[in-house]
Write a structure and sequence with these properties.
This protein is mainly α. The protein is built from 14 helices and five strands.
Amino acid sequence: MAGNNSEADEETPKQLSLSEGEVAVLESYLEQWDSMSGQERNVVWEDATTEARLKASAMDVKLLRSTENGCRTTERRRRTPKLPINLGRKWTYWSVVESLRKKELLKKIEDETGVKPSETEMKNHYTCYLAKMVNSLTEKEVEEATEMAAEWNKQGVPPEVQADMAKRKSNNILWYVASEMFKKAGMWLFMLSAWKNEEGKLLVSSHDYNDEFGNGESFSKTCDWQVILPEWESYISKQFNKEVEGDAMVKKGRKDNTYTLKIGDDGLPVLPDHTEMDSDMRKAIVRAYLNWHYHPMVRGLDSSQGDCYWAAILDKCEEKHKLDSV
């Protein structure tokens, strides 16, 4: 009996003790953690633990693997939809380095692995290479990045970082806002935006996602919304103290890359080569194919009546299930 208890004790995973470096990193996130709630805390937790792992001491391989397996299981249970951005997130020396040296990092990955930034395989290498880059910093570089993070948290980020954020995140953020306001408040939104790009050029854009919610119509496609554009351009010219050039209008929106399927002689759609496409165009082609395929279920054999109303498909499936169970 005693022997069995001894073996059971040996198999029980041990609690890993944190190093002084890990404790210091986690403590630096406490204020940010206390100011957040819900899903925002998940983002803070991910940032804190990612940075803390760099300070971890060497561990027993078996113990490390058991801990990682437990973390993965817990993460699968608690996984929630990721927000497009956490506007309350504070800058750290880690995120400052990532932001300022991202182009260098992507080029290094492409040179050594052959994976391009637009390819999905990039995420398999990105975190590892970023960790190596941060670990290679000298104490002076870490100190400078930490001071820069404090300055950015207090005074805001520099123009080049703002331009990168506007380019990469603005569309997803505004779509999320429009989606949440429709679902929770029944509100329809049409938005105009203006920002400066990396060259300092003033750009203007409209954002309309109304045809993606509740089977609604697009405002920009059904109304002459550009009558208000001169007033908007006049306003932002004063705010930015810069004139709007003739080619300043930029199209943005999740449906800009819509795709029309070509139908072959056999009556089936012809799918193009996807190897040179970006992810948005691939999604557009998949969406177009699904709309073509499911139209007969919802609207009869005529598939020329626009996009498929997906809620109707669910109704048809439920109706069929009820008939089959009778």
